[in-house]
What we know:
Blueprint: H1 10-28, E1 57-63, H2 66-73, E2 79-87, H3 96-99, E3 107-114, H4 121-132, E4 140-141, E5 144-145, E6 151-155, H5 158-173, E7 184-187, E8 191-193, H6 201-204, H7 209-225
Parallel strand pairs: 6-7
Antiparallel strand pairs: 1-3, 1-6, 2-3, 2-8, 4-5
Amino acid sequence: MSNTTDRSHPRMRALARTLAAVLVLGAAACGRIGAAENAVLVPPPTVDETASAATSEKAVLAGGCFWGVQGVFQHVRGVRKVIAGYAGGDRSTAQYGTVSSGTTGHAESVKITFDPAEVSYGQILQIAFSVVLDPTQLNRQGNDIGTQYRSVVFYADDGQKRIAEQYIRQLDQSHAFARPIVTRVDPLKGFYAAEDYHQDFLIHHPDNSYIAFVDMPKVDNFERTFPQLYSARPVTAHN
C-alpha cells in the first residue's frame, strides 16, 4: 500500500515547494522593509479618455513590488480584477525566481481590468502616481532595488500612450514632485500572470511584516486621499 503522506509523492513535493516559497516571501520577495512612503496627491490629468460604450478596459502598470500595487487597485471602485504578473520581457523568463535576477527585462507588474464608466484610465494613473509609487525613483521603489522594480506604464494602444505621456509632462511642468519623473511609458508586448502564491498576497497575508509596514499604508493613503474611489471590499485576481 502506498503512503500518500510520503514526501516523495508528487503532490506532496509540489505542496512542499509552494509552502516553502510562501514562508520565504516575507523576507525575500520584495527586498528589505523600509519606511512607508507618504501620499503625494497630484492633480488629475488634463487629457483623459473620452466617453465610450466600452464596459471593460485594461491597464498594465509597474511600480515596485506587485503585492502593494495589486493591493491598492483591488480597492478601487470600478475595478473588476487585478492580476499580479510580469511585463517587459519574454514569456520564457516570466518566473519569479528568474525575474528577481533583474536581468530578464521584466518588471513586477499588475493588469487591471476596469469599467471606464466608473473610473477612467487617467484616474488609474493619478492613483498610481499619488499613492502607489514614487515616479522619481529610477530602477527601484524604496528598499526594493533593481530593474524589476522600475515604474512603467505599459500602454495597450495609442490612446493610452497619449494620455500617459501627456500626464507625465503635465506633472513635470507643474513640479508636482521635487525631482523629475523617470517612469517609463512603453508598449505592452505581453503580460504574464505571476505564480498563484503571489496573487492576492496582501489580502491573504495582512500580518506579513512587509505588507504591514510597506503596503498597508498605501491602501490607507488611498482610502484617505481618494475616498470617492475607495471600495472597502476588494476584488481579487480570480473575480
